[in-house]
Write a structure and sequence with these properties.
This protein folds into 2 domains: 2-51, no CATH class; 65-169, no CATH class. Helix content is 70%, strand content 0%. The chain is built from 5 helices and no strands.
């Protein structure tokens, strides 16, 4: 991946920006050099991995889809629910949803993180930067059907994943 990105950015900056000369470097020189460095690092990683034989220490287990669903779902939940639920409640919900992705999930610590992050987000974005974000939930009659559907589905998925994890963790 490093080699691919490095090659892409090197070629793109070389073709689309002026490289300049040794005395007066152009705007394309810096991204070109960074792309080359990134490509070289990627090539070194690829060569090292090809020279080694796989060991049991580096073999991957089965992919945990629950974690992927919870993390991506919490980002989508924030996008759809911010206007409806307000900043404080939305931040608290996505913190708890993201905490569910941990195999060491503890409800008390998730609530603590959710409260801290909600207050921190309010202080930084509303008070510090002066952004106009809704702080409180709006009336459900003002919600679009997409927002209602997405919030409901998100909560059901989280509940199902929690129930599944609790059942799987029982001896």
């Amino acid at each position: 991946m490093f080699a691919g990105f490095g090659g892409f950015f090197s070629i793109y900056s070389y073709l689309n920006y002026d490289m300049g000369d040794a005395m007066h470097l152009g705007p394309g020189f810096f991204p070109f050099v960074l792309g080359v460095i990134l490509g070289v690092i990627g090539a070194i990683i690829v060569l090292k991995s090809l020279c080694r034989s796989p060991s049991s220490e580096t073999s991957l287990g089965p992919f945990d889809w629950d974690i992927l669903i919870l993390i991506i779902g919490s980002v989508l939940f924030f996008a759809f629910a911010l206007e409806a639920l307000g900043l404080i409640l939305t931040i608290a919900c996505i913190c708890i949803m993201s905490s569910l992705a941990s195999h060491d999930f503890q409800f008390k610590s998730a609530i603590g993180v959710a409260v801290f992050m909600a207050i921190f987000a309010w202080l930084v974005f509303v008070e510090g930067l002066g952004m106009t974000l809704p702080l409180q939930p709006s009336s459900p009659s003002e919600w679009s059907w997409v927002t209602c559907l997405f919030i409901s589905v998100s909560m059901l998925i989280c509940f199902a994943l929690v129930v599944r994890r609790v059942r799987c963790d029982k001896p």
